[in-house]
Amino acid sequence: MAETVTIGSKSYSVNIRRSGSSFRLQIDDRDYEGEFSRLNNGSLEIIIDGRRSITYSEKKSDESYVFADGINYVLRRQSHKVGSVVQDEPKEDLVMSPITGKLLDRKVASGSSVSEGDVIIVLEAMKMEHRLRSPRDGIISRITSIEIGGQVKEGEIMFELEDE
Amino acid sequence: MIKKILVANRGEIACRIIKACKEMQISTVAVYSDVDSESPHVLMADEAILIGPANPSESYLDFDKIVGAAKQTNSDAIHPGYGFLSENGDFAKYVNDSDLVFIGPNPDTIKVMGDKAVSKKMMAEAGVPTIPGNDGELSGNIDAVARDIGYPLMVKAAAGGGGKGMRMVESPEELESAIEAASSEARNSFGNDTLILEKYLDQPRHLEVQILGDQQGNVIHLYERECSIQRRHQKIIEESPSPAINNKLRKMMGEAAVKAAKAVNYSNAGTVEFLFQDGKFYFLEMNTRIQVEHGVTEMVCGIDLVKWQIRIARGESLDMVQKDIKQRGHSIECRIYAEDPSRNFLPTPGIVRKMVLPEGSGIRNDVGVEEGQEITSDYDPLLAKLVVWDSNRSDAIRRMDSALGQFVILGLITNQPFLRDIMKSESYRKASFSTRFVDEHFSDWELGPPSPEVIATALLASKSAPEKVSPVSSRDPYSPWSNKGTWRQNI
């Protein structure tokens, strides 16, 4: 779900799609691909175009505080949904496979109403089970049609949510 | 004998003083208002006394509550820090009259130096350069008086204030009409049309000299600080030495400061402020307290000013003479404020949610806040002072830039990005600036566009983190892994 991020007097339309430790980031009309991981001290390691940064963040309702590139930023955030209250935690709508592996189970069908935390998809890779949960309440507008036991590629869309 | 000191202040300077006391094995008492009960200075002191509500006039500015707290704790002395009661002669006298030591100059010195007109006259009599102008009533050949002072000049109402009855005159042709306008404005505003003429300094630098005087009458100076980088007439970046003066001027300025201090029998730490333009310096005022920016002097001179304040207050004489004082290398201070440089430096209260201080050789942090602390609008928005030292100015600038770049402070808007941009600017590096530096070079300052890392961090942080996943073989329903088998948790 796209949102508007405001820093100072300037606003940016942004969207992120995550898949495991990879992400695709859109800022206005530019696209970036990167990798990230969370470090034990609470900071984040981000690699974009081969450039590695260690960043820090904190948040409070619709504000995010980010330290990156040696600068402390305050970002005001607003989701793009019209006529709705800004959510405390903007949630993603599109869930992609974090891994390349095998589809073990598909718990719901398209059109199902789900709650945050419900297991939607179960994957397996390298003897490890990955459960993809719904990031928010909503309706499954689309779900992968791959047959059970079939191969799933990393970054492939597994399901999408829409508002009830 | 001073065995216990009450620190009548808060924030970083209270912490700074408490640390000096600890090193000298002197007990400390903190005072605090309601909103400061968990502030670092309270936690750091040996004892802490609540003195009232957040409003300073009912706590940090209340003579009776502070002296009462000192009496209650059997303190021997009161250190006022800077701001609050530090330059209040009546308070100093009240402390002394209560059989406590006031760590600062004597009350009469504070009072004399607090009156700008009186202090300017005293300094002129002592041979300290003051801003040229006529002192008495304007009479006789005014054109000749003006020519002696030189253009541009200021026509000022002697009784003036608040910008009323003041005119800047750029050339002799404008003088007559400016005098008429100023005198009628002065008559209407103050009922007194006495005017003075004074040289107008359009591009002054603010330089100041640190002095130390003991109670035996010895006075030394610890050279100058360059404090021209200001906003709203308040300093934000200071350095020592000043890149603007040569050794000859440095010596003259230092000697003038010592002369100024001796003229008022100054004891303890003090600062003589000068305006400097076109190779000449003029007395501005004397600050009868420790300054915010004392750290840069400590770094280049290798002398602990706060400890000396205490030693002098307990009657010790200086163990050094002028020729022992050397400037070594270069030091810069940046004041980290909770304020927004893109919105006219408005204070920006908030909660410090994360703070990571820069470390490394030649880096000093004087900090008065900690993680989790709320910065309220009750007090000055100074959060921390970052001080660096290196062997020369350009290296010190690079070190400051790098240290600022490691200064993590999240949860509120601060001037950290602004300070960093100044460090990177050609105009600061070239050092040919005046007190108008911020207006001239950074008045329309805005935070630059964020890198994709900034946006990515904000978006990734609000979403679930990848978690360790459970092995397929672990089908034990009671295994903790069964419940943790999610790679997407909302944190």
In short:
The complex is a heterodimer of chains A (164) and B (491). Chain A has 164 residues and is mainly β.
Question: What is the global morphology of chain A?
Answer: globular
Unreliable stretches of chain B: 464-477, 479-491
**Architecture of the largest domain in chain A, according to CATH?**
2-Layer Sandwich
Which quaternary structure do these chains form? heterodimer
Using a beta-carbon cutoff below 8 angstroms, give the protein chain pair with the largest interface and the number of residues from each chain: A-B, 63 and 49 residues
| Shape label of chain B | globular
Please bin the fraction of helical residues of chain A: under 10%
What percentage of amino acids of chain A are in beta strands?
over 45%
Topology of this protein?
The complex is a heterodimer of chains A (164) and B (491).
Chain A: E1 3-7, E2 10-19, E3 22-27, E4 30-38, E5 44-48, E6 51-60, E7 63-68, E8 71-79, E9 94-96, E10 101-106, E11 113-114, E12 119-125, E13 128-133, E14 138-143, E15 151-152, E16 157-162
Antiparallel strand pairs in A: 1-2, 1-8, 2-3, 3-4, 4-5, 5-6, 6-7, 7-8, 9-16, 10-12, 10-15, 11-14, 12-13, 14-16
Chain B: E1 4-7, H1 11-23, E2 27-33, H2 40-44, E3 47-52, H3 63-72, E4 77-79, H4 89-97, E5 101-102, H5 107-114, H6 116-125, H7 142-149, E6 153-161, E7 164-169, H8 172-190, E8 195-199, E9 205-213, E10 219-231, E11 234-240, H9 247-263, E12 268-277, E13 280-287, H10 294-301, H11 305-313, E14 330-337, E15 339-340, E16 346-347, E17 350-351, E18 354-356, E19 363-367, E20 374-375, E21 382-390, H12 393-404, E22 408-410, H13 416-424, H14 426-430, H15 437-442, H16 452-461, E23 470-471, H17 480-484
Parallel strand pairs in B: 1-2, 1-4, 2-3, 4-5
Antiparallel strand pairs in B: 6-7, 6-8, 9-10, 9-12, 10-11, 11-14, 12-13, 14-21, 15-16, 17-20, 18-22, 19-21
